[in-house]
Every structure is written in C-alpha cells, then in structure tokens.
C-alpha cells in the first residue's frame, strides 16, 4: 500500500513539474514575442518624438526716421513731416517639425523624407514715437502710423535676412534632423532627402532647407 502511495506521489510531482515547465516555456515565448518590435515602428516613434516646434528668438532695438512730403502746384509748395521712431521688436524664426512628411521602405530599409517645412519668420515690433515734426498742411493722421508700422516691419525683415539669426535657426533645424540620422544609422537603415542619401549632418547643411 505504501509503495502505491509513493508511486502516486512520484507521478503527481512529475506531472506537476511537467505542467510548470510547459507553462513557463509558453509564457517565455509569449513574452519574447511581445518584446519584439519592428525596426520601422522604432523609427516612426523616434520621428514622432522629434516632431516639435523649433524656435529661434532675438530682440532688436533701433531708432528710425520716417519722412513724408506733400506738394502743391507741382513742387512750388512743399510741406514735410517727420517722425523719429524708437522700435523694440521680438523676432521669431520657427520650424514646425510636425509638418515633416516621410515614407518608409521596410524591404530596402530606407526612410525617405519627402517634406521638411520652411522657416516661418514673425516680427512683433513695439513702436514709440520720440519726436514729431509736421506742418499745417501735412499733419500726421492714423494711416501714417500704419505706414510707419509696415515700413518698420519691412526694415526688420531685411535686417533679419542680413543677420546670423536665420543661420542659427537652420543650425538648430539640422541638429534636430540629425536625430533621424542617428536612429536610422544605428538600425542599419538609410536616410534619404530629395533623392540624396544623408550620411552626415554636413549633407543636411548642403541642402536648400
């Protein structure tokens, strides 16, 4: 009788051990399957993480002189008006990287950037009139202040184009785009823009972004 009990116990524990081993093997297989993530999904997640607004900001301050003349009877009677204007302006150059468009070729392991947004330039001038010199026949009216505002904006945009602000903004853009290069290279993929393989940040700098 005792032998039968021993045999029963041995068979029971053997069965229990086999059950535990089988369950552990299935769990490990499922867990490993769950941990497998396609490379394309990793790349898309990284592209999503970089899709943000990149902003370069600068402050400018300058004094301008606004002049306007009004003539009567040809140039026989000429009346001038002049205003000295102090301008403080915040200038923003931004890239909305959420507008980046791309295609993924899993078979060839290529990420093709199809659209990189252009920079958006915004100027917010604060205008203060320091001095006004006008005549009876040529006075400042509301529309003159609108003209001053538009002229100042145009002057500041010209100033921005001749400054390093755009260059610095592009450098920041390239720095963000370089993150795409890091992830694709680390996975053995190729990054392409305008049919040109991008192998380094220098390649980005050479492109008309």
Automatic annotation (TrEMBL):
Pfam families in alphabetical order:
DUF4230
| Family matches, as InterPro entries | DUF4230
What name appears for this protein in its UniProt entry?
A: DUF4230 domain-containing protein
Q: Which organism is it from?
A: Flavobacterium agricola
Organism placement in taxonomy: Bacteria, Pseudomonadati, Bacteroidota, Flavobacteriia, Flavobacteriales
């Amino acid at each position: 009788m005792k032998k039968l009990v021993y045999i029963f116990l041995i068979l029971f524990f053997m069965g229990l051990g086999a059950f535990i081993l089988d369950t552990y093997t299935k769990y490990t297989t499922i867990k490993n399957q769950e941990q497998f993530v396609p490379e394309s999904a990793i790349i898309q997640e990284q592209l999503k993480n970089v899709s943000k607004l990149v902003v370069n900001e600068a402050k400018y301050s300058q004094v301008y002189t606004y002049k306007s003349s009004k003539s009567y009877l040809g140039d026989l009677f000429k009346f001038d008006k002049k205003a000295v204007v102090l301008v403080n302006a915040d200038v923003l150059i931004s890239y909305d990287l959420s507008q980046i468009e791309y295609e993924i070729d899993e078979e060839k392991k290529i990420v093709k950037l199809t659209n990189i947004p252009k920079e958006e330039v915004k100027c917010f001038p604060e205008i203060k009139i320091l001095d006004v010199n006008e005549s009876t026949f040529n006075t400042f009216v509301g529309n003159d202040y609108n003209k001053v505002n538009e002229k100042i904006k145009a002057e500041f945009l010209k100033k921005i184009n001749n400054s390093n602000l755009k260059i610095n903004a592009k450098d920041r853009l390239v720095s963000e785009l370089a993150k795409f290069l890091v992830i694709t290279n680390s996975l053995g993929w190729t990054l392409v823009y305008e049919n040109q393989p991008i192998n380094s940040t220098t390649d980005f700098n050479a492109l008309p972004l």
